[in-house]
Each structure stands twice: as C-alpha cells, then as structure tokens.
C-alpha cells in the first residue's frame, strides 16, 4: 500500500504510559474500543491501562478477563497494569505470570476508591515486586493529609472548584514522592511517579535520581499548559487528581523535562461523562478527563511555538517511555517506531479542539475551543493503518496486542559520580536485608 506523505512528518507513535480505559465496570465512560480509537486519532500507538476498574485488576482472573476484552477490541497496542495494594501483595507472582506491564499503587484516594496501603504495606509490596524487575507506578498523593484538609474545607462550606486545589496542596505530593523514593532505595524496587503537577515535587525526584534510585517521572499536558486562573473559565471540568496548580508551576515542569528530571509526557486519560463532571458539590465531581486524542496536537502546538524541538517531543512522548519500560521489538533495539508504530502528522495544520468530535465516549475536556497547530493524519501500528486520512480503519479493531518487555533485574545502584550530593549518606545495601524472603 502506497501513501503520499508530501508535506507531512513521520514520527514514532506516542507511548502513553497512563490511561484509564474503564473496562470492565465503567463502560458508560469508555471501553477498549473507544479508548484505543481515540488513541489512534491522537497518534498514540501504545497505551498502558490502569487497574481502577470493577473488579480492580488485582487478581489473575481479573487480569485474564481484561486481556480478553482488550484483545477483542483494541486498535492500538497496550500494556495492562496490575493493582498493587496490601490485599494484592500475595497475587504479584500470578499477575506477573499473567502479563502485566507493571504495577500501580495508590498512595492516596482518587476515582475508584482503591484503599491506600500503609507505609508498612507499601514497603512489603516493594520488597515483593523488586525481584520481578517490574516498575511500580505511583499515584503519589498522601491520603491522610488530603482527608484532613478536605474535611476542614467541607466544614467551612467550600464548594467552589478552587476548594479542590486547596484540599490537595503540593505538600501532599512532595511527601508522597519523598517517602516512595526512600522505600524504593531501600528495596531496589523500580518506581515511576505519575502525573507530576508541582515544582516542589521535582526536588525529591531529582535528589533520588542523584542518589541512583531507579525512579522515573511523567507530567501531563494539563500541568504544562493550565493554571489556577483557568478554574473560573473552565469550571468543574478542570477537576483532576492531582489538581491543576498555580501557573508558576508550569515553567519548572518544562525545565525538568529539558533537564531529564522528568522523563516523559503521559496523559492520565481519565474519561467521565458530562453528568459526572458538573455537580453542585465540587468534592463529588469525578476527577479527570480524556487526553490521548489531544496530547499530540497540544504538544505539537508548543513545538510550533518554539517551546521545544520536535526531537524533544519525540524523546518525551516515545523514546523515554520505551526505555523506562524496556519496550522494544527485539533485544538491542531501543528505537521506538522500529516495528513501524508511526504517527504521520501535519505540523502546520491549524484547528480547534471540539469535544463533541472526540472518539472518546466521554466528550468533555478542559481543551474544548482551544486552537492548536498540528494534527495526526495517519496512524500505523506495526506497519498497518489503524487511522487513515482522519478516519478509523474499522478492520483494525482487535488487532492491538499486549506489548512485550524484556525482563531485566534492577541493576545494582551506584551513586551518580556527577552528583553534587555524593556526601549524602546513602542506605547501605547490606542493611536492607531480604525481608521479602525472610532472609
Ligand atoms: O483525575 C484522576 N482521574 N486522577 C486519578 O488519579 C484517577 C483518574 C480516574 O481514574 O478517573
Ligand atoms: Zn493517579
Ligand atoms: Zn490516572
């Protein structure tokens, strides 16, 4: 099949390591068909799907059922996260055997009401996952801080969108990232910090990296492009966990991408239908909004504006996610796109985001009406069209596959010789012991 791509650019398809496609349990919001169709329209060729569904993806049976659903409907490739909580620690070996891309651990409450482990439970969970080499992705917000603040704000009668931000100040995330980094260092468990939203979180992240902790991080378009002053304009639709923060956080997040402290851009694609997004009580509004379809246009707009180069974008949207999860078609090939997962984009196309036209079942985002420059025109997965000329290739339904990772044990961590912090006392490996096996 021939394609005239004159005037278009060929990019590696984006790898979005953070999506909620809601299946099973919440298919009125999304399913693997609509979610991966949205990905195809967004130039996203691989997604990692989160476990906060019904039943949560914390048992071998739930995982097998989800693999079946995804394989029947997916237009693009996918990885499935297993849920890591105090009551799923015993299931880790079965989940690894059943094919997970990694684990998700909720340090704080958000949509789905997954219970957060105690610090003791989290340490145990990391001890059990560490030898598998899988990475644990963290919803890094401390539950106990948020519960107290929300109770106080409720008592004070606050109902406005900014009350949501007040209940989750940046310290909520800073404390969680710092604590998770210590437990990762202690156990050797690889971790990934999801949805980094604040300048303040960057410090514990950078310090952990400098100590040689295998920790990676992502931020999302909403934290790079929106700010607290957008709450009034956008209304409760903007509610997301963690919250969009004061605009002063944007520049440090961009700088952290540039310096490598933050490794990648993901979306936290979290669809909810309009009824669930607009309610009188801001604390009961469902948090999150779709993102896979708008991420690439939003970011290409920033490329057009000169905020990053196109190779920066490719590094943050495809190369680094592939590296952090060991995703590559054959050992030795770390090039995303090497198995022809490709987005063919028109970098000059100006258009306006219209929620009503989204593929996602949840047609409500904070991006409605925003002008963007850049549009995926064709998307190919493993060399086959899944979206062509802005139309879905219907026959591609069910051709998406679970992605493979090459398993490697975590490398022994050595202090970064370039670090200015080598004087900091590091946890001596010998003292860590091997509590997971009782040694
Ligand atoms: O805003 C969010 N929505 N944050 C989360 O952590 C969960 C997600 C969801 O599943 O809706
Ligand atoms: Zn989260
Ligand atoms: Zn999420």
How do the strands line up in the largest sheet? 2-3-4-5-6-7-8-9
% residues in beta strands: 15-25%
Shape: globular
Helix content: 25-40%
What's the helix-strand series? EEHEHEHEHEHHHEHEHHHEHHHEEEEH
Question: How far is the first residue's CA from the last residue's CA?
Answer: 59 Å
Q: Residue ranges: pLDDT <50 for 5 or more in a row?
A: 409-425, 428-439
Number of strands: 13
Helical run tally:
15
- Radius of gyration from the CA trace? 21 Å
The structure class reads alpha/beta
If you average the pLDDT, what whole number results? 91
| Main beta sheet strand tally, sense and closure | 8 strands, parallel
Bound molecules: (4S)-2,6-dioxohexahydropyrimidine-4-carboxylic acid, zinc ion
Features:
five-stranded antiparallel sheet, eight-stranded parallel sheet, binds zinc ion, 15 helices, 439 residues, binds (4S)-2,6-dioxohexahydropyrimidine-4-carboxylic acid, globular, alpha/beta
């Amino acid at each position: 099949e021939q394609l005239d791509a004159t005037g278009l650019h060929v990019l590696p398809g984006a790898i979005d390591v953070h999506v909620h496609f809601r299946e099973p349990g919440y298919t009125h919001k999304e399913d693997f068909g609509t979610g991966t169709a949205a990905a195809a329209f967004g130039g996203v060729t691989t997604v990692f799907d989160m476990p906060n569904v019904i039943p949560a993806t914390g048992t071998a049976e739930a995982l097998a059922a989800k693999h079946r659903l995804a394989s029947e409907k997916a237009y693009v490739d996918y990885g499935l996260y297993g849920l890591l909580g105090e009551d799923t620690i015993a299931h880790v070996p079965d989940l690894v055997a059943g094919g997970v891309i990694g684990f998700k651990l909720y340090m704080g409450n958000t949509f789905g009401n997954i219970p957060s482990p105690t610090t003791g439970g989290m340490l145990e969970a990391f001890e059990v996952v560490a030898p598998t080499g899988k990475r644990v992705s963290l919803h890094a917000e401390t539950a106990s801080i948020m519960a107290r603040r929300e109770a106080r704000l409720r008592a004070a009668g606050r109902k406005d969108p900014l009350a949501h931000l007040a209940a989750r100040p940046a310290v909520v995330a800073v404390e969680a990232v710092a604590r998770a980094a210590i437990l990762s260092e202690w156990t050797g468990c690889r971790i990934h910090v999801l949805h980094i939203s604040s300048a303040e979180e960057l410090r514990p992240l950078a310090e952990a990296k400098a100590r040689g902790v295998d920790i990676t991080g992502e931020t999302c378009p909403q934290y790079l492009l929106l700010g607290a002053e957008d709450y009034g304009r956008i209304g409760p639709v903007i509610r997301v966990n963690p919250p969009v923060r004061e605009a002063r956080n944007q520049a440090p997040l961009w700088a952290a991408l540039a310096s490598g402290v933050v490794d990648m851009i993901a979306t936290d694609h979290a669809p909810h239908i309009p009824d669930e997004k607009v309610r009188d009580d801001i604390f009961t509004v469902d948090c999150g909004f779709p993102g896979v379809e708008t991420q690439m246009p939003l970011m290409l707009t920033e490329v057009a504006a000169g905020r990053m180069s196109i190779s920066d974008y490719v590094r943050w949207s495809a190369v680094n996610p592939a590296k952090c999860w060991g995703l590559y078609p054959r050992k030795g090939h770390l090039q995303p796109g090497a198995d022809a997962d490709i987005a063919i984009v028109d970098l000059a196309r100006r258009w306006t985001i219209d929620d009503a036209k989204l593929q996602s079942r949840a047609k409500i985002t904070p991006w409605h009406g925003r002008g963007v420059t850049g549009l995926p025109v064709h998307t190919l997965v493993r060399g086959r069209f899944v979206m062509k000329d802005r139309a879905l290739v219907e026959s591609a339904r069910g051709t998406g596959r679970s992605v493979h990772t090459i398993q490697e044990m975590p490398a022994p961590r050595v202090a970064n010789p370039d670090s200015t912090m080598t004087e900091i006392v590091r946890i001596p490996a010998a003292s860590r012991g091997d509590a997971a096996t009782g040694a």
